[in-house]
Amino acid sequence: MTRFSFRRPAIVMALAIAIPAISSMTAHAANLPLPSSCQDIHNHDHHARNGNYILYDNGNIFTVYCYGMPGTPRAYIDLAATGANENFSQYTAGGASPGTDVRTRFTRLRIDPATMTVDIGDLTFANSTGSLNHGGTTVTSMPYGVAMSCAGPQTTGGVGNIDLEGTPFQVDNAFATAGFQAAGSAAVGPDHQVVNLHGGGFCGWITPAPAMYNPFNPSTGQYHLKLSCAQRFLIPRRHQDQYCVHVG
Q1: Distance from the first to the final alpha carbon of the chain
Q2: For 34, which of 16, 158, 231, 243 is 20 to 30 Å away at the CA?
Q3: In a shared domain, residues 180 and 93
C-alpha cells in the first residue's frame, strides 16, 4: 500500500513554499501529501516527468531526481562536484593487473529513499575509461566509493573520491579493506561530505563497509553506502532546489 503520511504539516508547508523543486510536480501530484518514493508519484500521476521532486521517508524530507518516469521510476541525487578528480572510483593498473587505469566517474547516485543508502553499482549516470586484466577477467568499470590495485603487498595505488559538497547529504558509513595482503585508508573530511580513498594489495581494495568481494564490473542492487542529511549545507546558486532535512 502506498504510504503518504506526515506528522509535521507546518514544516511541509514551509518547505513547499521555500523549495523550488516542488514546482516540478504536476498540479495533481503537488496537492498530495509528500510521497515516499518516485514510484508513489508515478502511481498517482502516470504523466509525471523525470525531474526533481520532494520525498518524505523515515523522518527525512529531501530532494531526489526521479528518473524512468513513467516506466520504472528510480530515485537519484545530483552531484555538484563533477570534475576529473571528483566523485570517481579507480582500479589502478600495474603489477598483476596489466592494462590502463579503470576510472569510473559519477554525476548522479541512485538512492533508496527508505534507507538513504546509495546503490554503488548503478552506473546509469556514470562513465568509465580504461581497461585492465584481473586474473583473466577484463575490467572496464568500478562501483562508487571504491579504490583498488594489484601492485603488491600492502600497496595502496588505487584511488577514489566521494565529494558531496554542494549537496544536502553527508556520508554516514565506515569503510573496510579486503583482498589479499590488502591495505587502504579513507580520509573523511570534517563535514563528512568528502572522503578520499586509497586502497590496494595483491590484489586488494577499500569499499564502504562491509567490504565487497572483487568489486569491479558492478551490477545494480549494491546498496552499500549510507548517507544522512548534512549538518551544514550551503546551497550553491545552481543547486538551490536540493534539500535534506531530518524532522524525526
Answers
A1: 22
A2: 231
A3: yes
